[in-house]
Design goal:
Shape: elongated
Number of helices: 10
Number of strands: 31
Bound molecules: guanosine-5'-diphosphate-alpha-D-mannose
Strand content: 25-35%
Radius of gyration: 22 Å
Largest sheet: 12 strands, parallel
Oligomer: single chain
């Protein structure tokens, strides 16, 4: 038997995701029409002998209750939300719930960050781990040298794949091979975390003051576990050859939505919309997800990379390109939305334009409307972020509307 744990963090962690994370926890924000954590959860479902999935975080239980019960029913696998009273760090949180996680005596525990987007080759990681031995195997990927410094950089033995050296977000370049935030461990991971705790408790060792700038009961997987265990024949790497992105900003979520939509072409083509503008169906271009409850005017033109959530109404002549439209939005006649995310219950007026450059790396490269924003008729909102409940009756450009 194996179990999977997804680290979902908590409300203090998702602040870069504002204004979308004001009322919805970041892990539940839809990408390609499904909550962010739905993608790793469906990947877990494909592992043979998976007994349970745990979500560990410090959000209120009520925030996850609905999702957890509906996904458990859908997948026929128990998915449980376990709430920490406060953050314990990525390894501390795992350790905090060790008895629950090990209840059914699984041989292996998968550990996944909630905010990464990839095809989650979990069975491949597990099979590789069984060949390598040791405590754990982590998914790694090569990125550009400039991008690497935002992640854990590592050196692996090219033949044995052993993790030889690991540095979390180093100031000087170590390697362009980075940690993807997806791991499999044996139960020995708990012994390794226990050891860190006992070093911290051992006041004579100076461990706490010398190497740590975090509270004494806070244990980070990367700095406190991976770094010291590197080069000891305990940790191994599995190289990801498929897509991978980290999802720290709303702009990145638009990119990841497109990656998941194009993955649907292979894995779930039935989720993608089609239509050529005839037979009272709108013209669909490229990869588009449309929830079945959406009311779409047949003269609208949609795609590529568009996902439209439940109960959205799209009027005649509307044009949507590279955007995420969240639940209960209304887009009125001849409005245009490009490179944008439109928050729940927002309304876009007739002949209005909501757009941006589409450069994900720029702060205002994506226009984001928070929940219940009203854009009145004939208003242009360009490269801007608009907080919830605002009404815009004049055009704005490269602005943050508080
Ligand atoms: N439950 C819980 N409690 N979750 C936590 C806590 C905690 O105290 N702290 C972090 N997390 C969750 C986050 O929500 C995220 O899913 C994951 O643990 C890792 O978060 P961080 O520890 O903040 O690290 P990071 O995301 O900046 O970087 C990590 O992931 C990168 C890949 O995306 C590192 O492991 C990097 O090396 C790695 O490249």
């Amino acid at each position: 038997k194996v179990v999977a744990v997804i680290m979902v963090g908590g409300p203090t962690k998702g602040t870069r995701f504002r204004p979308l994370s004001f009322n919805t926890p970041k892990p539940l924000i839809p990408l390609a029409g499904q909550p962010m954590i739905h993608h790793p959860i469906s990947a877990c479902k494909k592992i043979s002998n998976l007994a349970q999935i745990f979500l560990i975080g410090f959000y209120d239980e009520r925030e996850f209750a609905l999702y957890v019960s509906s996904i458990s029913n859908e997948l026929k696998i128990p998915v449980r939300y376990l709430k920490e009273d406060r953050p314990h760090g990525s390894a501390g949180a795992l350790y905090y719930f060790r008895d629950r996680i090990m209840e059914e005596k699984p041989s292996h525990v998968f550990l996944l960050n909630c905010d990464v987007c990839c095809s989650f080759p979990l069975q491949g990681i597990l099979d590789a781990h069984r060949r390598y031995g040791g405590i754990g195997t982590m998914l790694v990927i090569k990125v550009s040298a400039e991008a690497a410094s935002q992640f854990g950089e590592l050196i692996a033995d090219p033949d044995t794949k052993e993790l030889l050296h690991y540095t979390e977000k180093p100031e000087t370049f170590v390697s362009d091979l980075i940690n993807c935030g997806v791991y499999v461990f044996t139960s020995d991971i708990f012994k390794a975390i226990e050891e860190v705790y006992s070093q911290i408790r051992d006041t004579s060792s100076n461990y706490q003051s010398a190497t740590r700038s975090v509270p004494a009961d806070f244990v980070r997987l990367d700095q406190d576990i991976l770094s010291p265990l590197a080069g000891k024949k305990q940790l191994y790497t599995y190289e990801n050859k498929d897509f991978w992105e980290q999802i720290k900003t709303p702009g990145k979520s638009l990119k990841c939505s497109s990656l998941y939509l194009s993955q649907f072409r292979q894995t779930s083509p039935h989720l993608l919309a089609s239509g050529d503008g005839t037979n009272r169906k709108p013209m669909i271009i490229g990869d588009v997800y449309i929830h079945p409850s959406v009311k779409l005017h047949p003269t609208a033109k949609i795609g590529p990379n568009v996902s439209i959530s439940a109960n959205v109404r799209v009027g005649p002549g509307v044009r949507l390109i590279n955007c995420i439209i969240l639940d209960d939005v209304e887009i009125k006649d001849n409005a245009v939305v490009i490179n944008s995310i439109i928050g729940w219950k927002s309304s876009i007026g007739r002949w209005s334009r909501v757009q941006a450059s589409g450069d994900y790396s720029e702060r205002l490269g994506i226009t984001i409307l928070g929940e219940a924003v009203t854009v009145e008729d004939e208003v242009a909102v360009i490269g801007s972020i608009v907080l919830q409940n605002k009404t815009l009756n004049v055009s704005v450009q490269e602005d943050i509307i508080l």
